[in-house]
Specification:
The protein is α+β, with helices and mostly antiparallel strands. The chain is built from 14 helices and 17 strands. The chain has a 6-stranded antiparallel beta sheet with strand order 4-3-10-9-8-7. A 5-stranded mixed beta sheet has the order 12-14-15-17-16, covered by helices on one side. Strands 1-2 form a two-stranded antiparallel sheet. The radius of gyration is 50 Å and the shape is rod-shaped.
């Protein structure tokens, strides 16, 4: 049995232990419930023996003490756990009978033994079982305790009977109060248990989600790290821990902080502390695809980093999540591709220059050659010049430079010339060409480069209208800018392809599996030319309805 108190021999004090009543067995709970009455009866017996020596000799008072002793023994001897649950309520009922005998046997002592009835009343009403019956017993038990002796002795006058009603009414009031309080506590306990169950379910669900999140983070091939509002690391997956080992130099700065091997895009310039991904995230910056190099020598790796802030419901900053993606292979592949394009372009330039040069020499004697030979040589010359221009464009795109030489030119004439050159191809594809341009519109631009832009845009409009349709070229001057629209009614492109349309070697997803030829350089060259003029180029497109390209350059 778990005792509620224990004697401490060292300190000479009784040590009480705080335990919830429901933590004890039913047998222990019955004994604890009876304990206050038993202790009070013992104290009352001592007081009666000291100050009222005649009372202990009363047989009824002796029976009262004997029954209380027997009840106390029953509380400890009976295996209440094995009996039906309400059986233990027999104890407070026996107490009421016993107290009634004690009241009758202690009439010559003014101690008020009948007040001991409050203990079994509280027990009955606090049990929560048979609430109405408990209230009835709380009233009828004390009433019988008072009226029964009056009827036995024949002193049951109306005045005597009414005089004795106060005590049972008081016991009933106590019983009602205890019953209401118990019911309220039971309801409150039930709500608390429901909340505890809900919290346990929420905790279990949270732990399950946490395990799932950790599994996902450990599975992905990206480094993921979470920092708090102060920039301290809260969580990192296995891949990120490997990245951190790669970036650790093992040395410390003058402040004792570890030095990191983080470099800019050139792979040799150390990245400034405030420009490192972790530091930028700690400064509450958000970024996407920020490239850094980590490590040195052959182990150096390229990482594209992204960061997003975490905020609570009130918008307060909680921290950031960073993602590190290893793009070393992609960066090396792009560099190898650019080197290949550069080398091939240089190799093409020498024979093309030779071809163009010899064609020029032959055409110097055009007067002595047949007309049909001259015409074919001129075609060779134009195509050789076009190939040389394309090689120059490839080299310019590779180096990031596009040289333009602006001069006064009639742009309307350039539009008409480009449309006329595209008419044979348009006729073959069943595409109708339209021009909406003023008769003459002069601007200070590079005629060859602007013609190249027009040729590329019109050619694309025809190419990506495989089922025929209309292509309209519109030229306008707005304030101090030259604005040109090339609109088709072709296949269009998805929104996700808009941002990459002007990227080198990019082809839209809906044309990669078609027979439409192309390497994805035309639009990037157009953008480079327009940028070199200080202008802008953009597009609007709807899948299945067509695309409109618009470029604007200073006039």
């Amino acid at each position: 049995m778990k005792r509620p108190f224990e004697w401490d021999a060292k300190s000479g004090r009784v040590m009480f232990f705080q335990h919830a009543l429901h933590e004890y067995s039913l047998k222990d709970r019955v004994a604890l419930s009876q304990l206050p009455l038993t202790v009070t009866v013992c104290l009352a017996a001592v007081l009666v023996a000291l100050y009222f020596p005649a009372t202990p000799g009363n047989p009824l008072f002796v029976i009262f003490l004997a029954t209380q002793a027997a009840v106390w023994l029953l509380c400890h001897a009976v295996p209440w756990d094995r009996l039906p649950s309400p059986t233990f309520l027999a104890i407070p009922l026996l107490d009421i009978v016993s107290i009634g005998l004690g009241r009758e046997g202690g009439q010559d002592s003014p101690i008020g033994i009948s007040l001991l009835t409050v203990f079994p009343v509280i027990w009955l009403c606090a049990s929560g079982l048979y609430r109405r019956s408990a209230l009835v017993v709380s009233f009828l038990g004390p009433l019988a305790m008072i009226w029964a002796p009056q009827f036995i002795h024949g002193t049951h006058t109306p005045q005597d009977l009414l005089r004795g009603l106060l005590f049972p009414i008081m016991m009933l009031g106590i019983g009602v109060s205890i019953s209401v309080m118990t019911q309220s506590m039971v309801m409150q306990q039930k709500r608390l248990e429901e909340r505890d169950a809900a919290l346990l379910r929420a905790l279990d669900d949270s732990q399950q989600k946490e395990r799932l999140l950790k599994t996902i983070l450990e599975t992905v091939h990206l480094g993921v790290v979470v920092i708090d509002a102060d920039g301290r690391e809260m969580m990192a997956n296995r891949k990120q821990r490997e990245n951190q080992v790669l970036g650790a130099s093992g040395d410390t700065d003058r402040h004792g902080k570890p030095q990191l091997l983080v470099f800019d895009a050139d792979r040799v310039t150390p990245t400034e502390a405030d420009r490192r991904p972790m530091r930028r995230a700690a400064l509450r910056q958000e970024f996407t695809d920020y490239l850094v190099w980590v490590g040195t020598g052959r182990e150096q790796r390229a990482f594209t980093t992204s960061a997003r802030s975490m905020k609570d419901c009130d918008g307060s900053y909680l921290g950031s999540v960073l993602v590190f993606g290893d793009v070393t292979a992609l960066v090396d592949a792009l560099a190898a591709k650019d080197d290949f394009v550069s080398n091939v372009s240089h190799e093409f330039r020498t024979p093309l220059t030779s071809i163009a040069g010899y064609v020029d020499l032959v055409l110097e004697e055009a007067e002595s050659l047949p007309t049909w030979v001259v015409e074919q040589l001129e075609i060779v010359q134009r195509n050789a010049d076009r190939l040389l221009s394309l090689v120059s464009d490839l080299l310019a795109v590779r180096s990031g430079r596009m040289i333009v030489r602006p001069h006064a030119v009639d742009v309307s004439e350039l539009v008409k010339s480009s449309v006329a050159s595209a008419e044979p191809k348009a006729n073959d594809g069943g595409v109708r060409l339209h021009i909406d341009a003023p008769e003459r519109l002069e601007a200070h631009v590079d005629a060859n480069r602007i013609s190249q832009v027009l040729d590329n845009l019109i050619s694309n409009a025809i190419k990506y209208s495989p089922d025929g349709g209309d292509v309209r070229v519109t030229l306008r001057q707005e304030e101090n800018a030259l604005v040109c629209h090339v609109k088709d009614t072709g296949m269009g492109m998805d929104k996700q392809d808009h941002a990459d349309a002007f990227t080198r070697y990019f082809r839209a997803g809906n044309v990669r599996n078609t027979a439409i030829q192309g390497v994805g350089l035309g639009l990037s060259i157009c953008k480079a030319i327009v940028d070199a003029h200080g202008g802008t180029i953009g597009l609007e497109s709807v899948p299945g309805e067509g695309t409109t390209f618009t470029f604007r350059v200073p006039a």
